[in-house]
Design goal:
By secondary structure, the chain is an all-alpha fold. Helix content is 69%, strand content 3%. A hairpin with a 4-residue loop joins β1 and β2. α14 packs antiparallel against α15. It is elongated.
Length: 943
């Protein structure tokens, strides 16, 4: 069976990677390559459409982390099908539009890759059949929208808008995660089908109010509901194609999608009705009122989006079957007219150089075709008859007048609906009148003109849909609307008519009153006030900025107090925190009492190793002021630890410890270049006693922990791991099997953290300027013999590294050890010959090496899911090769390759940066061993 759902979801992500890597393609080719994702996605969706319209739910299940209930489950019902169609169709139009919108200075690969990442994230949200998986894609939409909103990173408003959107929606995502965990606890499963079928159980649980509050927090932040709506207007700093996509089919629609998706499980209580309806009504009015006073075309459209999202939220809050149908209908209608309006606003900005309505006007004479399209879309937004917005608005009026059992709320919502009709016509009229009619244009930097033909086609398609749905709803949108609404309501799906004319009734009279009131309000405001002089300041933005500044101030004071640049203070806090964490279970009585089991007898060799270790540790303390000697003696302690692992029959740990000691020694030697030869004496005897006490407490705690671990009984989980290693993971080296299979997800997280740490060190040190503590007179001392030996060592060490890597699954070795082995000879060359000499002969990009390692590790883990097994599950294959014979291969070698690359690249990136720090600009530093005119071939920075 062809995995249609998996391919549908993978298309945007795969093509995003292809587009990001295809930097040499022309701009047009890049756009067409990006357009393949929505185009092919629509073909796949069309192939599955008959099944969906017949009421069948398509499903694909792949185990991921079953222990916590997380599975990679995809589910396509009517609602997901409708939203996937919106995401792909409007996404395709946005790609075409963006091809002509972006300037030559904008990076097309970066833009289209981010857009496709956003598209794939939104598809993941609508197709997810597991609530935990939905949260994963939900957060991915926040991250990808951050990249798109901040695309023009050179602009302060773009950076601020991106940070604001990420902070608000990211916090909402955390709340949603909490709500999902509570739903899973109530139901006992995170499978969406199970959750939707357990509505009575959820509503009857004592945890229901908390789960509802957390889920609604995620919905309200994502869909910009009052009072968390303020981030959306500031997201208008994004390029207009992003705004069109963001407001019509993705980002903000994710919130109302989730409200619709979980409606069967959460709706049906007074708490849901009052909270959702109240927030929706307030958002409806606040957004519409603020839209009237905006001067920026995109600002007006942004606040109108807030209002329309409030309308949809209000309809789902009312929760009657027809209200749900109206809510789904308005999602479709709003997507079409709002996308076309944003594209029209972008065309105006593109061809006039401004979006400020105070400088526009009379554009119908300069841009007649664009003006006609924008006016029709504006009328649809205002809810004028024979356009799609009118039909869903009439449904809204009818449901507002017919709320059962809540008279006070019915009256309040009816008044809010009428005001919405008035305000909606007013801001739509301002958009039309002050842009295309009246006087103007004024002080433009260019003469307005029509855009390129293909730039108008997406707007034309959407406007035609607005007219077609408004005039022939039963022939156009009826099947889509029925499929989407039926997926929510099921057997409660009502009978309804999509006729254009229902006679003279209360909803029609409300529509006419709204149109007349909106016209009167707009021209009345123009007569009484100078609308161009009114500037509305965002209270939400001021509160957000005040909170951020207060948070930064608190963080700064905390940092100054805790980490004021003193390594001793930071180390003291770290050790005290670790000691407190270790003692807390014993103090609280939660830990079992210590058991003093008899140790095993230790032979003479063991005592000898222990004695040398103790002597090295004590002598390090004795020589701590002489830093170079202390480092050498401390290396002896590390060597004894490695030999202790050999003594305890742990060769993997011994090799790892030995390699870490060698790399750490090089790092310390590079660091000593910028430190005084001797440590300063303690300031007071009291501080010395404090340090001794802390060291004794920490050392005693670690010693007790080690004793308890080493004297445990032998019947632990290690026996099970040994028994399952070869038959299930196809490896005889259980240590490596644990790293790449049994605990592979932990290892993936660890190499990710290591990669991030290496990149942070790179980012910090590439701009650092430090002067050597002591400048040696004369030229650098030549060390030809060690230099030659270091070069001879490299091919031999490379051979050993590959050998250890290939044998790691069945014998001591593996990617981690092999990566460090390969790094050691290069690091020695860095110390002996200098960074410039090494990099001139060994050109290698460590940053790309780290990135490639993470990609290889991730792809090898995901590949197992294609075979229906969980992430990072090992497979096995016996290859029969001529002359060689049988060669056993385990799929874990792919993941271990990623570990190998990340460890080597990360270690080299950190340590090479220590050798390429630029000198201080002081005169003394220029006399040192590092010449400021030299440039690192790896970092591109002056040393």
């Amino acid at each position: 069976m062809i995995p249609f759902l998996e391919i549908l979801l993978a298309l945007p992500f795969v093509l995003a990677l292809v587009v990001a890597l295809a930097r040499g393609l022309p701009r047009g080719a890049t756009a067409w390559l990006a357009g393949l994702a929505p185009l092919l996605g629509l073909v796949l969706l069309a192939w599955m459409t008959p099944s969906v319209l017949n009421g069948w739910d398509l499903r694909a299940d792949h185990a991921w982390i079953p222990q916590i209930g997380l599975s990679f489950t995809l589910r396509l019902d009517g609602l997901a099908w409708m939203f996937a169609g919106l995401v792909l169709a409007i996404g395709g139009l946005v790609v075409v539009y963006a091809r002509y919108y972006l300037s030559q200075k904008d990076s097309a690969p970066r833009f289209f890759a981010s857009l496709l990442l956003f598209m794939g994230s939104m598809l993941g949200v609508v197709l997810a059949g597991n609530l935990l998986l939905l949260v994963v894609f939900w957060e991915l939409t926040s991250i990808s929208s951050f990249l798109l909103i901040g695309f023009w990173s050179h602009r302060q408003d773009a950076r601020e808008g991106a940070r604001m959107a990420l902070a608000i929606t990211g916090a909402g995502g955390l709340a949603l995660l909490g709500g999902v965990l509570l739903l899973g606890r109530i139901v006992g499963s995170y499978d969406l089908d199970v959750v939707l079928a357990s509505g009575d159980l959820i509503r009857g649980s004592a945890l229901y109010p908390w789960a509802l509050a957390l889920v609604l927090a995620g919905v309200f932040t994502k869909s910009a509901q009052f009072p968390l709506h303020f981030w959306l207007p500031h997201a208008m700093a994004a390029p207009t194609p992003v705004s069109a996509y963001l407001h019509s089919a993705t980002m903000v629609k994710a919130g109302v999608f989730l409200l619709a998706r979980l409606h069967p499980a959460l709706a049906g209580t007074d708490l849901f009705f009052y909270v959702v309806s109240t927030v929706g009504a307030l958002t409806l009015l606040v957004g519409a009122w603020y839209a009237i006073f905006q001067h920026d075309l995109k600002g007006l459209l942004a606040y109108s989006t807030i209002s329309h999202l409030g309308l949809i939220t209000l309809l789902f809050g009312i929760s009657t079957p027809m209200a749900v149908v109206a809510g789904v209908f308005h999602i479709l209608n709003h997507a079409t007219f709002k996308a076309s309006l944003f594209m029209a606003a972008g065309i105006i900005d593109h061809e006039t150089g401004t979006r400020d309505m105070r400088r526009l006007g009379n554009l119908r004479h300069y841009m007649p075709w664009t003006s006609a399209l924008a006016i029709i879309a504006s009328l649809a937004m205002a809810g004028i008859p024979l356009l799609n917005g009118f039909l869903s608005k009439e449904m809204f009026f009818a449901e507002a007048l017919d709320i059962p059992g809540h008279r006070a709320m019915r009256d309040a919502i009816s008044v809010a609906a009428l005001l919405y009709g008035v305000f909606g016509v007013a801001y739509s009229l301002r958009f039309v009148y002050e842009t295309f009619f009246g006087d103007g244009p004024r002080a433009l930097e260019m003469t307005p003109h029509e855009p390129p033909r293909w730039m108008k086609i997406p707007v034309e398609v959407l406007v035609v849909l607005c007219v077609a749905v408004g005039m022939f709803p039963a022939w156009t949108v009826a099947p889509v609307l029925h499929a989407g609404a039926a997926a929510i309501l099921g057997e409660a799906m009502p009978d309804y008519s999509l006729a254009v004319w229902h006679g003279i009734n209360k909803p029609l009279l409300m529509s006419l009153a709204g149109i007349a009131g909106g016209i009167a309000l707009y021209f009345g405001l123009r007569r009484l006030f100078d609308l161009h002089a009114i500037v509305r300041r965002s209270l939400g933005r001021r509160v957000f900025r005040w909170n951020m500044e207060a948070l930064y101030g608190l963080a700064g004071r905390f940092t100054d107090t805790l980490a004021n640049g003193s390594l001793q203070r930071s180390l003291l806090c770290l050790v005290l925190a670790a000691a407190a964490a270790g003692a807390a279970p014993f103090v609280g009585g939660d830990a079992s009492p210590l058991q003093w089991r008899a140790p095993q007898p230790m032979p003479l060799l063991g005592w000898l190793l222990w004695l040398v270790l103790v002597v090295c540790a004590v002598w390090t303390i004795r020589l701590y002021r002489q830093r170079l000697l202390a480092v050498v003696v401390l290396g002896g302690a590390g060597l004894m630890v490695s030999l202790a692992f050999v003594f305890l029959s742990a060769p993997d740990l011994a090799l790892t410890q030995l390699m870490v000691e060698m790399v750490s020694l090089v790092l310390l030697l590079l660091g000593l270049h910028y430190l005084p030869p001797r440590s300063p004496p303690e300031r007071t005897p009291r501080r010395r006693l404090r340090d001794i006490a802390v060291a004794l407490v920490a050392g005693t705690g670690v010693g007790l922990l080690a004793y308890q671990v080493m004297t445990r009984p032998g019947d632990t989980i290690s026996g099970e791991l040994l028994a399952r290693s070869l038959p299930e993971a196809y490896g005889a080296n259980v240590v490596n099997v644990i790293l790449v299979d049994f605990r592979g997800f932990d290892t993936f997280g660890e190499i990710t953290v290591f990669a991030i740490a290496a990149l942070i060190v790179h980012a910090l040190l590439r701009r650092a300027r430090m002067a050597p503590e002591k400048v040696m007179s004369g030229p650098p001392i030549k060390l030809p013999v060690p230099a030659d030996l270091a070069q001879i060592m490299f091919p031999l060490t490379l051979t050993v590294s590959v050998f250890l890597f290939l044998r790691g699954h069945n014998a001591p070795g593996g990617g981690f050890i092999a990566g460090l082995v390969l790094a050691v000879p290069l690091l020695v060359q860095y110390v002996i010959q200098g960074a410039a000499s090494v990099e001139s002969r060994f050109g290698f990009d460590y940053v790309r090496c780290v990135g490639a390692g993470l990609i290889v590790a991730g792809v090898s883990g995901v590949a197992s899911m294609a075979f229906g097994v969980p992430f990072l599950t090992s497979g096995h294959l016996d290859l029969e090769l001529p002359l060689i014979g049988t060669v056993p291969l385990a799929s874990a070698i792919g993941f271990d390759t990623g570990v190998y690359l990340v460890v080597f690249g990360g270690a080299m990136l950190i340590l090479s940066m220590m050798g390429t720090i630029r000198p201080s600009r002081t005169r003394v530093s220029h006399l040192g061993v590092m010449e400021p005119g030299e440039r690192s071939t790896r970092t591109g920075e002056l040393r």
